[in-house]
Amino acid sequence: MQLRDNLVLKVSTLRSRGVIIDVTVLDVMDSFASRTLHDLVRMIKLRGADTVIVGIQPEVAFAMVQLGLTMEGVPAALDLEEGLAFFNQNSLRKETGPRVK
Amino acid sequence: MKRNGNQPYVSASTPNATTPDQLLRELVAHLRQHRTDLREEWARRITEAQLLTAMSKEEIFAEATSVYDNYVEALETGTFEALQAYARNLSERIIPRGVETNEVVGIVLLLRDVLARSLFAKYQGDFDKLNRILDAYEPAANRIAITVAVGFVQERERTIREQQEAIRELSTPVLQVRERLLILPIIGLIDPQRARQLTEQLLRAIRTNRAKVVVIDITGVAAMDTHVANHLVLTVEASRLLGATVIVTGLSPEISQTLVNIGVDLSKMTTVGDLQGGIEEAERLLGYKVVSSHDLVQQT
């Protein structure tokens, strides 16, 4: 919750255009976590920035889709590097200010 | 003391003139003494019973000799490790030659029979002694028979498992054709277990090869049911969470019909008619452009 409030606030104060959420260290992603993440992405979107989720482990990814947590509409990338590449490609017009959790 | 010869069993606690240990030693001595003829008798009966037809007479005799010696040793020492190891080794050698379980069980039981008969013959006159000898002999002999049979079956199961694994490994190759482009050709029948393994391998390959696009070619898949189709959709979505786009190619007319009829939601999958189209689409996504060298020469 604190992360959410903080992040949503920072998006405006830093005038971020892109947010990378790195979940590499998460070994488990339950429905609560993924809903929180999904909500977060939507809130950030409302504040005018794009989000990409990076570092989902293969096992976690499969467990998530089995639970029906497909994170629709949320871009995902393999790791931080890919996430940065995603913004560089997609937002030539946007100045990128990625923030890493 | 047991006087009644008709009573079939003597409990070990009955104070006998000779302890079971001594009986067993006597028994082993007897088997050692008659090693040659008993062995021959056994080999003869194996041939008679048409067991081990895959092996020549000499081979049977050679194996019979070592089994016999191991058998006697197991009887003598009461430890089965050596016999177990031998049984495993023997199984390893004879399984590839097509020896069946019933044959192995058959020959072990035959040996048991041959030895028991020789005991009958020897102690014909002394029924009481015969009974006690059999008491010592039978449990050990049964355990030996079980050890050998179980060893054989285990070895066979191990072989089968290894082969299954090899087939499975072979059946799901994940290939990299270009930087960041993987191809997963699927051939044959997909059962739930194979589907799961396929997904695991693909997801792992996506991470290790840092793939952006994956082409799953199912030209070689004849039929698909709801379960497998749903699994395919899950795989596509899981790949997306790893940042890879999946293109499915080679859906046969029958499979397309089935999938639409059973109402699997394929809207999230990109599908292309054939593998070539799929690779072209993948190259487009990755920003590759394939140009023939002739055209290049003409341009310059």
How would you sum up this structure, described in words?
- The complex is a heterodimer of chains A (101) and B (300).
- Chain A contains four helices and three strands.
- Chain A is an alpha/beta fold.
- Chain A has a single domain, classed as STAS domain (Transcription Regulator spoIIAA), CATH 3.30.750.24.
- In chain A, strands 1-2-3 form a three-stranded parallel beta sheet.
- In chain A, helix 2 (31-46) links the parallel strand 1 and strand 2 (50-54).
- The longest helix of chain A has 16 residues, at 31-46.
- Chain A is globular.
- The relative contact order of chain A is 0.24.
- Chain B is α/β, with parallel strands linked by helices and 300 residues long.
- Helices cover 64% and strands 9% of the residues of chain B.
- Chain B has eleven helices and five strands; from the N terminus they run H-H-H-H-H-H-E-E-H-E-H-E-H-E-H-H.
- Chain B has helices spanning 20-33, 35-48, 57-77, 81-94, 101-122, 127-171, 192-209, 226-241, 253-262, 275-286, 293-299, and strands at 175-178, 181-187, 213-220, 245-249, 270-272.
- In chain B, strands 1-2-3-4-5 form a five-stranded mixed beta sheet, with helices on both faces.
- In chain B, helix 9 (253-262) links the parallel strand 4 (245-249) and strand 5.
- The A-B interface holds A 53-54, 56, 58-59, 61-62, 64-66, 70-71, 76-78, 82, 86 and B 199-200, 203-204, 206-207, 210, 234-235, 237-244.
